[in-house]
Amino acid sequence: MSASSPTAVIAATGLFTPEQSISNAELVQAYNAWAELENARNADDIVAGTREALTPSSVEFIEKASGIKSRFVLDKTGVLDPERMVPHLPERSNEELSILAEMAVKAAQEAIAAWGKPVSEIGAVLCAASNMQRPYPAMAIEVQQALGIEGFAFDMNVACSSATFGLKTAADFIASGSVKAVLMVNPEVCSAHLNFKDRDSHFIFGDVATAVIVESGDQAGPGGWDILGTRLKTVFSNNIRNNFGFLNNAAPEGIGKPDKLFVQQGRKVFKDVVPMVSEMIVSHASDLGLEPSGLKRLWLHQANINMNEMIGRKVLGRDPEPSENVIILDDYANTSSAGSVIAFHLHQENMAAGDVGLICSFGAGYSAGTVFVRKRG
């Protein structure tokens, strides 16, 4: 970005939270009921030693492993049915607004209302998310049409880092002069891709949608956040993976297998990602002339409380105060790309003009993104 390029400003954010939520106790009850049924169905094999009995889950196990206490979902009845363990999300006709678009529109409407400007000033819409419900037409174009926005729109998927990749893309559009304002939305129906029959991951995800409006600093009003710098990184890894896609239709025998849902090797992910992200944050801060220990707030991807706490310690050089390293996954769980934006949206209080913070993501790919922001007067 050259010195003469327009600065990009995060002008407004929005959040859509589903009405239904599932506590750890409810989730554990459903999982354990299913596991008991499975053990009964396979009792002979378990006795013969050809199959291992399923281990019950527990609230204590979930909270120690993740820090998660509850999660919002679009449908809890299907998830909590031991004979189903999948949300009820009826297919909609092509003439109806799709589920992801509906969620995104609700979050976008909140952001637009907070922004206080007409949608005619928005020149692009980005839908940046992990869990797209179809290959095309792009979800972003459907959102664009529903909101009456001109210009162009497209989807992008970089798993849990989709939002920070979207913020950089929006900032680059502003810097190049392509548009004056960008709407980025992050609708995530993670419950549809989660294997609720896997004890090691059945508790991880929740559903939500977020929205961010990025506009040119030369037209932005007071308030908001200057984007000081953005940086992206990807390193290929199979340690977090989801193999479901339209090509599965060519091999229907694969549908329903565990690898068509979210799978990960959690310990390997922790070992690989924590140092990669910590070093990326510190290096990017240094290149921007910022002292990491002076960051007022960290809005990190909400994956796992242990990861977030360790990254916070490595970046700040000390144990962060709760207000410095925002945690929202206890209520929302891991919401993939939307997590860091939820944290940013809900926890901007007590920030003074000139204070600097960090929006950061990390996830499958591996992918990581850092967006340093400064509070405007």
Could you list some keywords that capture this structure?
single chain, 377 residues, alpha+beta, nine-stranded mixed β-sheet, two-stranded antiparallel ribbon, 10 helices
Instruction: Give the overall shape, derived from the CA principal axes.
Output: globular
Largest sheet: 9 strands, mixed
Uncertain segments of ≥5 residues (pLDDT<50)? none
Secondary structural class:
alpha+beta
The helix/strand order is: EEHHHEHEHEHEEEEEHEHHHEE
Total DSSP helices: 10
Rg from alpha-carbon coordinates? 21 Å
How many strand elements? 13
% residues in beta strands: 15-25%
How would you portray this structure in words?
The structure is a single chain. 32% of the residues lie in helices and 21% in strands. It has 377 residues and is of the alpha+beta class. Strands 5-4-6-7-1-8-13-12-11 form a 9-stranded mixed beta sheet, with helices on both faces. A two-stranded antiparallel sheet has the order 2-3. Strands 9-10 form a two-stranded antiparallel sheet. β12 and β13 form a beta hairpin.
